[in-house]
Amino acid sequence: MSDRPGDIGDFESLVVTVSEVRIRPADGELVTESVDGVTADLTELRGDAQKLVAESELETGEYEHVHLGISAVEGTLSDGSEASVDTAGEAGLKFQTFVVDGEESETFEIRADETASFTADFTPVEQGGSGSYVLKPVVDEVTVTCDPVTATESA
User: Fold this and answer.
1) Tell me, what DSSP letter sits at residue 153?
2) Would residue 104 be called left, alpha or beta, if left means φ above 0 and alpha means ψ between -120 and 50 degrees?
3) pLDDT at residue 150 in the model
4) Adjacent-strand bridge partners of 132
């Protein structure tokens, strides 16, 4: 996970709890990985800062979306008051557009003998001056990178 500016400057802290990661192969069944309530304070993940949420082994092939199940969001605004922050609906955060090798894509590939990293970038956006916020993906910052597996990683 990472974070782009959006309205994050309004927050003293914004702690998101991830409960599951769901990944859909382009031609297969949804893969669901439970996560033991990994938390991240998005105010600490500005710029290039990231936090690992989960590691999984996936079948090689094309994948069309990644979905983060969010079980809790707790926000404190800069003035010390509590913030109302939601995801869009009960579904959590769904990522369907990725930056792969510098190009925007609707799919990404898991390849043999490579480690793929998915960076889910999202930000709080205030809803029309109402004081409530919604977490939204930052499309041009949702990246998938692949690196060859080294001998020490495969052992």
Assistant:
1) H
2) beta
3) 54
4) 84
Task: Give the model's confidence band at 15: pLDDT under 50 very low, under 70 low, under 90 confident, else very high.
Answer: very high
d(CA 80, CA 52): 28
Q: Helix, strand, or coil here: 92?
A: coil
Its pTM stands at: 0.81
d(C-alpha 90, C-alpha 130), whole Å: 20
Nearest alpha carbon to residue 22 among 48, 61, 53: 53
- Give the Cα-Cα-Cα angle 54, 117, 22 (nearest 5 degrees): 50
Joined together, the tokens standing for residue 77 give: 């605004």
Strand partners, 95: 66
What is the share, in percent, of the chain residues with pLDDT greater than 70?
90
